[in-house]
Amino acid sequence: MVMTRQAIRRVVITGLGVIAPNGSDLAEFWRSLCEGTSAVGWLTQFDPGSSPCRLAAEVKEFKPGRYMDARKSRRWDRALQFELAAARRALEDAGWANGQRTRRMGLVDGTVSVGWEALARAAADGVGKGVRSGGAPALMHAYLGASSGEVDLALGLRGPHVTVGSGCVSGNAAVGLAFRQIQADEADAMLAGGTDAALNEGAWASLTGARLMTRWQDKPSQAMRPFDRHRDGFVLGEGAAFVVLEELGHAVARRARIYAEVLGHGQSSEGVDAAPVLREGRGLAGAMERALAEARLHPGEIDYVNAHGSATEAGDLAETDALKEVFGRWTSRVAVSSTKPVTGHLLGAAGALETVVCALAIARGAIPPTLNHAMAGDGCDLDYVPKRCRPYPVRHALNLSSGFEGKDACLVLGRYREGA
Known about the structure:
This protein has 420 residues and is an alpha/beta fold. The chain has helices at residues 26-35, 70-75, 78-94, 116-125, 135-139, 146-155, 170-183, 201-209, 248-253, 282-295, 313-327, 340-343, 350-364; strands at residues 11-19, 41-42, 55-57, 105-111, 161-164, 189-197, 236-247, 260-269, 304-306, 335-337, 366-367, 390-391, 396-402, 407-414.
């Protein structure tokens, strides 16, 4: 039996929370995207030495004491602090006061780097000497699932909690998994998002060696150039973003504000080596096709695509080719932008942050631009919304994410329509 949309548990977004390099207040965050005010600057968290990569998008003036007690702020990694802060902001935005959590609310987070600082501390403390050394407790905050467990406990949630570790698609996949939990009646509400704080020597050396980060040495705000002829890689950022997802009836019953509806999610893979030169975009096309099929939309109904747009030579071309394959004769009608030149690339948190961007684009009727797009690269010939924000009544938006080992994910959001 084919289920109608009315027979499926519909899922809506009722809260948004960000801790981002370009602002942790939603109004400030959105304004910087639309005005093209980049958060990229010279790296300050450590000395990059002789590295040719010297730019980063850092979260400035973060005050963990606003979101957690002093013990947690001393013990937790920066990524974990960001996560709790963004999750609290999303709950506040959704109108969930302390003590009002439903028993059927859970959490799914995505990350690449949470626990790296704890591992370093454990090694420095000599964990091999035994639990009295102080290293063993640090290890409890270093394993991949620690983030969802710690934040779940801090917020008093009683539903399912899961951590997704799937590279740069982690945040997108986390929202998709939370969407599935509500659809399957495993929860009535879910916090979903991602966090990363990988501005450290190890990650820097690895990404520099892979030639994935920009080597731009001029004005920092002009460094990252998705789909542009002079693109040479991304700027590494840090931060967290979370959304509150709710079953529609649950949201309506408590008179929640609805930003957008989640209509579909798809994941796929390239099926080839992760090296950018071998990427062809077939997996990304597959993820889009799966998500659109679940949403019961054809490509001509999509108004906006928030692209992965990492400004790598091969990645941007592969993404453009994938969009052409899926959108066909509607390709020239869809607006495509990358917001990473403003925020930096937040790795596992990127897909979650860009879910927030898509929800705001729908709610506020505007498409943020692709900053620094001046001259299209060969084969990059779509409407990338260069330079200026575009007022537009966005009905449906796609959020695209790609990552190492050829992982791809696509989330479809739509304007909420009562009774649709």
